[in-house]
Amino acid sequence: MIQIKDLNKKLLDAQYAVRGKIVMRAQELEAEGKKIIYCNIGNPQALKQKPLTYVREVLSLVEYPKLLENADFQKGFHADSIRRAKYILEQIPEGVGAYSQSAGIPFVRQAVADFISKRDNIPVDKDRIILTDGASKGVQAVLFALLKNENDGILIPIPQYPLYSATLTLYGGKQIDYYLDENNHWLLNEQILTESIEKAKQNSINPVAIVVINPGNPTGAVLSYDNIKMIINFAERYNLSILADEVYQENIYDESCKFYSFAKVMYDMNKTSVPLFSFHSMSKGYYGECGHRAGYFELRHIPEDVLEQFIKLQSISLCSNVVGQIATYLMVAPPQEGDESYALFVKEKNAILNDLKEKAKILGEGINSIPGMSCEIPQGAMYAFVKFELPEEKGIDLNKMSSSERKKYEAKRDSDYCLALLEETGICVVPGSGFGQLPGTLHFRTTFLPPKEDMEELVSKIRKFHLNYVEKLK
């Protein structure tokens, strides 16, 4: 009989806090009848966000084309949804149940290229677009391809989305942490980047790439144009590829901020020597179609023979799921002015984004009003990385601990805090140690996806819980 000791050690060592032990406990409590407010994962439709009508109309027709033969049934659909479904089926007469080309359906890849070109006003080649099962599969493909040797390393932000640390563990790559500047809106700091990469090189690690998440997960920060320029120059100086995780590009709430893609800034700088992999997904933005696993990545400044290897890697899985590819098409080619569904599409889109903006403010201002707690009001994405302070424990001298001992101790403190928060209030958040945090600080990550009334209740419950928890420790 197979036992856990028989499994790959890299799998056993991989950690993915977003769905870890605290979430498992939340599910147990929910089964016992306790109300749980799930703030652990960016899963909008699980938290009552409704799917966009346009997307579901077209997907329904494409999944079951016989509906297009029934005039009475079509009365319930917008005319442009029907036209779009017919167009899609003309492009793939075999339907969505057949494999596609490995890199993805050509007309969808062209639509993605057109979307990027219109967004950034730059030239885009559809043959350098690969459609994937969500952005995660694209990220994993690139990391797998870049990690040639066991001493190859990837710079990842701290705090980070644990997809990166877990994948590096699975693939045997080295994690090179660089701390985001919490005191400067979580932007990247060139001095910190330089210190991180130089330390890695001194430890015989070979840096091959840098990951940047913009807007940030878990920080909610939006990078400035100049900050992105600095990162590109840094990557060029150290001969690094850039992995630009841009899945939250539609989620911008602070009117003083604007999303700039790495592709756009790199094009403006005329930097052609820095390899760039840019990722986008339909799971986020205002769509929230996480379950359809729809996404893509674009490859820039990559030689043809290297591109062929990425397509070969994709072909090993044959192709990404075809319904997800069609969903990606609908993301990059939404209704236009003059289409029958356009007014409803805009109404639903704006309602979702405006609601998220209001909830970001409710969360940020509410947290910052609690003594001993603080967070940057999210500028974008759908998360906040909340900092909280706890009294020092009697008999504990942090100065006598090694760095690994201190990291383990602080991880236990924030995990205990988050578990107690769950047990007492039903609020499910993720300990900051699951994302990484500056030594000497404690955090948790929360989404602001639950309905507005739940967000107001959440802030109130956190206030009461935190004050009582601190008082007990004194």
Describe this structure in words.
- This protein is globular.
- It has 16 helices and 13 strands.
- The chain has two domains: 4-49 and 350-473, Aspartate Aminotransferase, domain 1; 106-332, Aspartate Aminotransferase, domain 2.
- It is α/β, with parallel strands linked by helices.
- Helix 11 (262-269) links the parallel strand 6 (241-245) and strand 7 (276-281).
- The chain starts with 8 loop residues before the first helix and ends with a helix.
- Strands 2-8-7-6-5-3-4 form a seven-stranded mixed β-sheet, sandwiched between helices. The protein has a four-stranded antiparallel β-sheet with strand order 9-10-13-12.
- 44% of the residues lie in helices and 14% in strands.
- The protein has helices at 9-13, 21-31, 53-63, 71-74, 79-91, 106-120, 134-146, 163-171, 190-202, 225-237, 262-269, 304-315, 322-332, 342-368, 403-425, 452-473, and strands spanning 37-38, 129-133, 152-158, 174-179, 206-213, 241-245, 276-281, 294-300, 373-374, 383-388, 427-428, 430-431, 442-447.
Mean pLDDT figure = 89
The neighbouring-strand order within the major sheet is 2-8-7-6-5-3-4
Order of helices and strands: HHEHHHHEHEHEHEHEHEEHHHEEHEEEH
| Name of the top-level CATH class of the largest domain | Alpha Beta
Secondary-structure content class? alpha/beta
CATH superfamily of the largest domain: Type I PLP-dependent aspartate aminotransferase-like (Major domain)
Largest sheet features: 7 strands, mixed
Distance between the amino and carboxyl termini: 50 Å
Percentage of residues in strands: 5-15%
The figure for the number of domains is: 2
Envelope shape: globular
Architecture (CATH level 2) name of the largest domain: 3-Layer(aba) Sandwich
Low-pLDDT segments: none
Number of helices: 16
Q: Radius of gyration over alpha carbons?
A: 23 Å
